[in-house]
Amino acid sequence: MSALSRLIPLVVLLLPICALGSSDEADFQAWSGTANAIRSAMQASIRTSWEQGTAAGAILEWNDAEYSVFAPNPFVSNGQFPLDSLQYAYSAAVRQTPDGRLSQNINDALDGAALDGASAGSVVLMGTFTDTGRASYWENAADAELNYILNVAPRTRTGAISARDDSAQYWSDGVYMGFPFIAYYGAVKNNGTLLQIAYDQCRLYRDALLIDGPTGKLWAHIYDDTTSSWIDEGIWATGNGWAALGMLRVAVTIQKTSFYSSMTSQVSDLLSWVKEILDGEFAALGSDNLLPDYLTGGPNFGDASSSAALASVAYRVATLCPDQFGSNYTVIAANIRDAVLGGVTNLGTVSPVVNTLIWNETGLLSTEAQAFTLMMLSGWRDWIGA
Ligand SMILES: *[C@@H]1O[C@H](CO)[C@@H](O)[C@H](O)[C@H]1NC(C)=O
Ligand SMILES: *[C@@H]1O[C@H](CO)[C@@H](O)[C@H](O)[C@H]1NC(C)=O
Ligand SMILES: *[C@@H]1O[C@H](CO)[C@@H](O)[C@H](O)[C@H]1NC(C)=O
Question: Which atom, in ligand 3's list, is nearest to the CA of 299?
């Protein structure tokens, strides 16, 4: 072997590393094969309504980041066609039930969810300005979904939109399912009333579900307002993840509109409620660098799903408000990140994860865990870039 031919592979090897500015960038690149496998396992999974919307949100951040609410100017077309996200949106709209719920028309549409379909609402409405040849199709689908959650879904006594279609119930995940879409609709249509409604719904859900936990105030899982009783008073980590993900998106959406100057206190409330969740959950981090499935009221096995969700939130808030959320949060997020990515199986599945239907057991494949992990990677990427 000549000296030159020995040198060439070395040069090829060193070039990309030399081009990188920080060890985080190199780490990020090193996980890119894993990231692809995480994404394809999500795409391959059979999905219910909330999983369709959550997967769409993850793909938006990962593949079409310029249209996610974390981008500088996401509510108008920039000439790019967000193909991957619109493919998810299309399936959600094709599977819309006549009452307006997106992605709902599977399993005879009988799962009883009132808010879950709205989790695909933002990508559907995005079609109106990114796929103008089909603008009225996207508009009708988004309008029917908005009409369902504002005017058809049951309400609690305080006016919160129920997570269920047959009774008035608060589920912590509803904060992600329904309220970012209401805010997004308000942002795209320049409607401040809807931005305020999105904020109010987050506030009402927090009022109903916040309880004292061993590491501070956190959210319980499910309260039935119809019978005035808890269905699950446990502090479920994934539920806290959903609440934080949802409130963060509502806050960021409001911030990007012309209404922000008159809604700064709403945004600062939302961010302080996100911080409350991060503080309570991160204080409970296990020695495996994963959050316990339940802090109270259930088993405490390490759960990569909720852990990824809240690490994504930490990266986003640290990028957004570095003064309020400094290195305390990103140091923990990095530990979680390495634990979650280190646990990904040869099928690209995130593990160990809570079973998405039986919350006190582990499961084999969680579409939402796949999505949360892509959100975490997107948040990490954008934090490195900032
Ligand atoms: C804002 O949206 C609400 C709910 O759809 C609607 O009733 C109201 O007329 C809208 N306001 C404006 C200014 O478009
Ligand atoms: C970060 O953690 C240190 C040590 O626990 C604490 O003193 C400090 O107030 C924290 N900073 C923030 C911004 O939370
Ligand atoms: C999980 O919860 C169900 C319903 O509350 C209960 O019957 C079951 O025993 C629990 N399983 C574990 C492993 O805690």
Answer: 14
The residue written with tokens 């399993």 in the block is: 107
Instruction: Tell me the whole-structure pTM to 2 decimals.
Output: 0.93
292 preceded by cis ω (within 30°)?
A: no
Nearest CA to ligand 1 atom 12: 191
Name the closest ligand to CA 300: 3
Closest listed residue to residue 163, CA positions, set 69, 95, 250, 231:
231
Give residue 293's Cα distance to chain centre.
Answer: 17
Verify whether ligand 2 is closer than 6 Å to residue 326 (CB atom). yes
- Tell me the torsion sign for CA atoms 106, 64, 150, 232: positive
CA–centroid distance, 193 to ligand 1, in Å, is: 7
Ligand number with the minimum distance to the CA of 194: 1
* The amino acid at 81: F
Distance 360 CA to ligand 3 centre (A): 6
Nearest alpha carbon, ligand 1 atom 11:
191
The tokens for 279 are: 């503080």
Helix axes 49-63, 32-44, angle to 10 degrees: 150
User: What residues have CB less than 8 Å from 117, skipping those under 6 apart?
Assistant: 49, 53, 92, 96, 97, 100, 101, 102, 103, 104, 145, 148, 177
pLDDT number for residue 244: 99
For the chain, the distance separating the N- and C-terminal CA atoms, rounded to the nearest angstrom, is: 44
pLDDT tens figures, 288-300: 999 999 999 999 9
C-alpha closest to that of 367 among 341, 352, 343, 349: 349
Q: Is 112 in the pocket of ligand 2 (CB under 6 A)?
A: no
Which ligand has an atom closest to residue 221 CA?
Answer: 3
CB count within 10 Å of CB 112 equals: 12
Q: Edge to edge, what strands does the sheet with 222-224 contain?
A: 169-171, 222-224, 229-232
Q: Whose alpha carbon is nearest atom 14 of ligand 2?
A: 328
pLDDT tens digits for range 125-138: 999 999 999 999 99
